[in-house]
Design a protein that fits this description.
Length: about 650
């Protein structure tokens, strides 16, 4: 990132008021704090291993072990550490700044094999990847060779006796030595699973590491709540985007994608980092954790992500839609505040792609349908949800994602392969829904990516990843398609504000010659939803949604006597049976969702287009929803009169 961008973030932090942390001014990193003993949980993604030709040959001396199954479950194992080894922790501003010398040595471990290569991690150690530089770690064999590395640490410290450092949900990657042993140096950094470990602390050291007590007001009128998505290397690796698996339908049992397959479903996930640049505290309570202030519920933000393709002819199409990741804990870094279930002003937080892919394989359930969320208010309808069908306020046994595809973002291989990929550009968008957030657009971010298939394995390359200010952008992808700051007579991008949420309508008019113009519209439902609650469960914490509907109509005025040609539309689901129907009548070309099915739900985009023999002008277009008496209008490029 450029110095200018960091200065902007620093100014935002300095402007965040009303945070008071124990411990005084920032201090240099402190040495002499040590962790020892404990245990390590390793979760390995069977799909990721199979895609690169690696198999698990043995698992020895695990205190707990569960076999993995491709497409269904991770391979998980817990290994115990001896009490004689110590790992130094670097403490700065009452938080974990990095790992120093030393190591934690664990009994047993995995043995990997691929062709003639054999990687033996029995008796492995966890140590700093680069002592004193970041919170990433290396997993080394008994001889000291680092075969795996892990980053994007999410940690907590308990100060009661026995005091403990708990490190969770780190991205577990192939180290350069592992990639070289496979004869594939390009695989270095490939995520193959998740690492978590726990270690014992001296009670005095735990208090030095646990962060201070912070205070800030809750959201209220006149106070600015603002969570901002960021692009971070807080843990030693820059945030990135990954493909944990690709499977053939029907999922999950039909097997993995092959080198020749074109009909597979590609799963994508991303690391995500964020900052509290507002002046209020933000609730970050895990689901089903009780009723907490300020809303008397288990309030937390929700992370969603999307994928778009811009074809070589300039058309935009959404080709991927995730479910919603329920956030559960903030580590509160770089602010002297203790980690926990409140995100304090001036603090940073970080989630790994492994966490966003539904945890570490030990039964976590963090992904659930978007339709359970009221996006404009940031409320979750817990009662009757996929996790709580009986409305008893507890997670139902066996609920949630019971395999490695459900609730993930699934992208058709054909959308990423020629001929559709030829000359196309791809954009990955991710954003947090945060209750009372003042600026929804700085809680969104996007990056240009290049999906690539080598053999049976998919991976994502970041476009311009090393270029300052050219790899990560705040705001939605539709603002890249048409920049709202640079409109002209042929390009517009306007926000539609309604009492139920917001949308954006971006439009382009392209001169085809001979008096013919192509009119294109990208309609993004940002956070609009027409919802209906169960009267018996109309209050938090036990809200119950009976219905949530997005837009069902889009209409563009067309002058009398002007023929509409080559009309078409594209939604995000790829299902031709529920495509919107077009008609020309009453001085407009109008698309309607069939019988209120396939509404333009929040966080998704539809593309509409037609050709007309009329030069462009600016006039209102209309979006509407069945059941909402108000027809909402916003100015856009349309055929002139």
């Amino acid at each position: 990132m450029t110095a200018a961008r960091w200065l902007a973030f620093a100014f935002a932090f300095a402007s965040a008021c009303c945070v008071f942390a124990a411990g005084g001014v920032h201090a240099a990193a402190r040495a002499g704090v040590y962790a020892s003993a404990g245990s390590a949980d390793v979760a390995l993604n069977p799909d990721a291993l199979a895609a690169i030709g690696v198999r698990i040959e043995a698992v020895e001396r695990a205190s707990r072990h569960a076999d993995g199954k491709a497409g269904v479950a991770q391979e998980t194992a817990t290994f115990e550490a001896g009490g004689e080894d110590r790992l130094e922790l670097r403490v700065r501003d009452s938080g974990l700044a990095g790992f120093g010398p030393g190591a934690l040595r664990f009994a047993g471990g995995f043995v990997f094999a691929s062709g003639e290569a054999r990687i033996d991690l029995r008796g492995f150690t966890v140590r700093a990847r680069s002592p004193g530089e970041g919170t990433d770690v290396a997993l080394a064999d008994a001889g000291g060779t680092a075969w795996l590395v892990a980053d994007h640490v999410h940690y907590d410290v308990t100060t009661h006796v026995p005091a403990e450092l708990s490190v969770r949900q780190m991205d577990l990657r192939l180290a350069p030595a592992f990639a070289a042993a496979l004869g594939r140096r390009d695989l270095a950094g490939r995520v193959i699973g998740t690492l978590a470990f726990r270690a014992v602390l001296d009670a005095r050291d735990a208090k030095a590491l646990a962060g201070g007590r912070c205070e800030a007001p809750w959201p209220a009128p006149g106070r600015r709540t603002n969570i901002q998505l960021s692009y971070s290397n807080l843990s030693g690796f820059w945030d990135s985007i990954y493909v944990p698996r690709c499977g053939l339908p029907p999922l999950p049992g039909a097997g993995a994608c092959t080198a020749e397959s074109t009909n597979g479903k590609v799963v994508m996930s991303a690391d995500a980092s964020l900052r509290n640049v507002g002046e209020t505290a933000v609730a970050w309570y895990a689901h089903f954790s009780g009723e907490h202030p300020p809303y008397g519920n288990d309030q937390h933000p929700f992370l969603v992500w999307n994928l778009y393709r811009v074809d070589r002819d300039g058309r935009i199409r959404q080709i991927g839609v995730s479910a919603a990741k329920h956030a559960f804990f903030s580590i509160n870094e770089r602010c002297r505040c203790a980690g926990g279930n409140v995100f304090w002003p001036g603090c940073e937080d970080i989630y790994s792609a492994s966490s966003n892919d539904n945890g570490s394989g030990n039964g976590e359930q963090n992904l659930a349908p978007r339709a359970e969320i009221v996006p404009f208010t940031g409320q979750w309808a817990r009662c009757g949800s996929a996790w709580d069908r009986d409305c008893d306020g507890r997670m139902d046994p066996g609920s949630g994602a019971q395999d490695l595809y459900r609730y993930r973002m699934l992208v058709d291989e054909s959308d990423l392969l020629p001929p559709l990929a030829t000359g196309a550009r791809y954009f990955f968008e991710y954003w947090y829904v945060v209750r009372d957030d003042a600026d929804v657009y700085d809680t969104m971010g996007h990056r240009e990516i290049r999906p690539r298939k080598t053999g049976a394995a998919w991976q994502v390359d970041l476009v311009d990843a090393g270029a300052d200010d050219h790899d990560f952008f705040l705001g939605p992808v539709v603002n890249r398609w048409v920049d709202p700051a640079h409109e002209d007579a042929t390009r517009t991008n306007r926000e539609l504000q309604t009492p139920l949420g917001r949308a954006r309508v971006a439009a382009k008019a392209t001169d085809l010659g001979g008096g013919r113009w192509r009119y294109e519209y990208a309609v993004m439902n940002v956070d609009y939803a027409l919802v209906r609650f169960d009267p018996a469960h109309a209050r938090e914490p036990d809200l119950k949604l009976l219905e949530s509907r997005g837009f069902t109509t889009f209409s563009v005025p067309v002058p009398d006597g002007v023929a509409v040609e080559s009309a078409r539309s594209a939604d995000a689901d790829g299902d031709g049976d529920d495509d919107w129907r077009m008609r020309v009548a009453g001085g407009a070309v109008t698309w309607n969702a069939p019988a209120s099915r396939n509404s333009l739900a929040w966080g998704t985009l539809h593309h509409f287009e037609f050709v007309a023999r009329r030069a462009p002008a600016i006039a209102p277009v209309v979006v509407a929803t069945s059941g909402d008496p108000v027809r909402h209008a916003v100015d856009a490029v349309v055929p002139g009169r």
